[in-house]
Please model this.
Amino acid sequence: MNARTARIARGATGDRPPAPPPALHVEDVTVRFAGLTALGAVSLTVAPGSVHALIGPNGAGKSTCFNVLSGLYRPESGRVRLGDTELTGLAPHRIAALGVARTFQNIVTTEGTVADNLMLGRHALSRAGFAASALHLPRAVREQRAHRDRVREIAELTGLAAHFDTPVALLSYGDRKRVEFARALCLEPRVLLLDEPVAGMNGAERARTAEAIAAVRARLGLSVLLVEHDMGLVMRLADEVTVLDFGRTLAHGSPDEVRAHPEVLRAYLGVPGEDPV
Ligand SMILES: Nc1ncnc2c1ncn2[C@@H]1O[C@H](COP(=O)(O)OP(=O)(O)O)[C@@H](O)[C@H]1O
Ligand SMILES: [Mg+2]
Model:
């Protein structure tokens, strides 16, 4: 059993949180699209077990940064590392297997129950294989049961336990978005990339999701890189904030430092009546 499998098995029994993940390093990453610099030598570090928020106006380069981190885009220059492991240029499934999982800005879940959707998230981790599962071999049955227990724990952590056997199509928008979040957690990531997890939600749904993010971070000990427009949520959850503007780092620091940063104030926060950041 390697360290990752051991951690997953531990998770299934609900033991204490695993050791903190390695730091995620983005170093001097540059991405250009037909002459437009979407990211110009951007660097940031997601410290082990921290929530790091990436904010900035539309077009700042936030999603491009996520796409580089998750392997969808290859940077023109610069590197991405998880601890000492080089992630730059790896295929998305390899990066996910190394423990970096993401959610997308749009909901992609509509079929089956919440439990079905979360079990789908476990398939990448399944060791017994489909043939053994189909034949109901004892090891496969045991493994399915362990996955099911873990999936139930994740549903509890993310506030979805009451909807475990509900078809996703019947859920509210906010609950469906949290299914996406929970499904990413089913991969047992060490670093979770959340792209606008509360976009389009009402106040109550936002509060529930914020609670779920805080609970997940505390219980699972993973790191989170959070892209979000809701400044209240960012200020409440983040340990560190990086502000991007036109593909450049405008400011970096604690939420209070960033909030008081003259450039940030001038550019985003200080203009009444405008959409903050
Ligand atoms: N696949 C792409 N092809 C061309 N331009 C792109 C592509 N993806 C993003 N861009 C451009 O790169 C810039 C950064 O976009 P994006 O990373 O989506 O910003 P954000 O997520 O901060 O709103 C924008 O000007 C956008 O139009
Ligand atoms: Mg975006």
Strands lie at 24-33, 36-46, 51-55, 77-82, 85-86, 100-102, 191-195, 223-227, 240-245, 248-253.
